[in-house]
Amino acid sequence: MSQRGDHGSKNTDPDSQLNAMLLTNTVDVDGDAVSPVGQKPLYRNIAVNMATTLDELTLNPSKHAVWSPSKEQIAAILRQPRFQNLQGDVSTEGDLRSILLHKMSLHEVGSNWPLSIGTRITGVDNDTFTLNGSRFATVVPPDTYNSNTRVLQEDDITTARSFAKQFPGYTSNNISSKGVTHVDGRHSVLLDNKHPIVYAIGQNAAALQANAAGIAVMEDGLVKCSTQLYETVMPSIKQQIESQVKVRNFESMSVSMHPADFDSWTAARATMLANSKKAIKAKMTAALVGVEGSEAQEKIRVDFNNQEKETELDLGNKPMSLTMNLGIEYSFL
Q: Which site from 34, 86, 123, 200 is most exposed, i.e. has the minimal number of CB atoms within 10 Å?
C-alpha cells in the first residue's frame, strides 16, 4: 500500500501527523464480506402511527408530534437476539449508538392532514427543503396514501466495514474504555494488542519518534503505553473514527412531524381556521342580500357565527393521523 507524505520538510509535532494515521492503512474488505454482527444485514419493519388533534399539537407539540419509543423498546426492536444455551435463554447484542445504516426505505405512508407534513427521522439526513427554508427527511403531501417504496437514506459503509473487520468490537463510543486499563501511580496505560491505538502507533513510529520510548509489549500480550503518549494519540484516533466511519445513533430513535410550510402548529392552525371561515363568511354575505329588517339580519349573523364556532371546534378536535411503514437494513459496528 502506497504512503504519501511531505518530503520537503519534517514536522515532529505528533498532533500534526495523526490526521490520516489510522484508516488510510486499514485492510481492504471484499464486497461479499458479512456484516460485523450476523451473516447478513439485519432487517426491521417499523410501523409508525401518530394520531392526535390540531389542538393537542398547538398546546403541546413536543408530546403529540413525536413518535419516540423508550430506549428499552428500541433495544428490543433493533438489537440482535442470541441463544445462549440449549435451554433457550436469549440475550441481545449490538451497540445502538454505532449502527451501520445500509438503507432506510419508506414502504407505505398515509395522512389525512389537509396540509403538507414534514417529517424528521432518526438516521435520515434532512435534505428536503420547503418554501420557508425548513429541512426535513421527507415531506408527506396533504390527504395522501402511497404504497410505492422509496429509499430515504442509503449510507456508504465501505470504510466502516473495513474498520470493523480489522478492529472488531471497537467504536468511537468505546475506544477509550474497551481494552484500556489505566495504571494508577505509574503514568502508564495497558492496552489490548488489538486496540486501534496500538496499530496506529506502530504504523506511525516515525511521526511519533520523540515518544517511541513510551510503548512496550508485555509478556502477557498487553501493550504498555505511557500516559503522555496515550493522551497525545487518543483524541486524534477518536476524531478520525468519528469523521470517517459513518455510524448512526439509534439509541433514541424518533419520528417527528411538523407543518411543512409553517413555522409552528399555532401558525398552521390560524391559517387553516381562517380558510375554513372564509366560506362561511361568503355564505353569510350572500344570505344577507335582500334581507330587510335588522332583526332578520341579526338572526342570520347569529346562525353563521354559530357555524364558525362549530367549525373551529371541529377543526381543533378532529382526529388526525400520520402513518408510516419504515424498512431498515442495518448492522452493528
A: 86
In a domain, 190, yes or no: yes
Q: For 297, phi and psi rounded to 5 degrees?
A: -65, -40
Band the pLDDT of 260: cuts 50, 70, 90: very high
What SS3 string covers 92-125? EECCCCCEEEEEEEEEEEEECCCCCEEEEECCCC
Distance (Å, whole) CA 57 – CA 61 = 4
User: Residue 258 forms beta bridges with which residues?
Assistant: 118
Residue 83, helix vs strand vs coil: strand
Q: How many Cβ atoms are within 10 Å of 264's Cβ, its own excluded?
A: 13
Spatial CA neighbour of 131 closest among 288, 263, 32 = 263
Alpha helices (H) along 32-94: 54-59, 61-64, 71-78
Q: Which of 16-30, 55-69, 117-131, 314-328 has the lowest mean pLDDT?
A: 16-30
**Same-domain check for residues 191 and 231:** yes
Range(s) of the domain holding residue 189: 14-30+172-244
Name the burial class of residue 125, with classes exposed (0-12), middle (13-18) and buried (19+) by CB atoms within 10 angstroms of its CB.
exposed
The cell 364556532 sits on which residue? 309
Cα 213 from Cα 221, distance rounded (Å): 18
CA distance 174 to 226: 20
Q: Which helix (H) or strand (E) holds 223?
A: strand 223-226
Residues 217, 223 contacting (CB under 8 angstroms): yes
Count of H-run helices and E-run strands, the chain: 9, 17
Please tell me the distance from the alpha carbon of residue 288 to that of residue 216, in angstroms, as a whole number: 96
Q: What is the pLDDT of residues 134-161, one digit of tens each?
A: 999 999 999 999 999 999 999 988 888 8
Burial label for 87, CB within 10 Å (0-12, 13-18, 19+), is exposed
- Please give the pLDDT value at position 19: 43
Give the chain's domain count.
2
Say if residue 278 is in the same domain as residue 226: no
Q: Does the residue 239 lie in any domain? A: yes
Cell numbers at 16, concatenated: 500534526
**Running DSSP on this structure, what letter comes out for residue 23?**
G
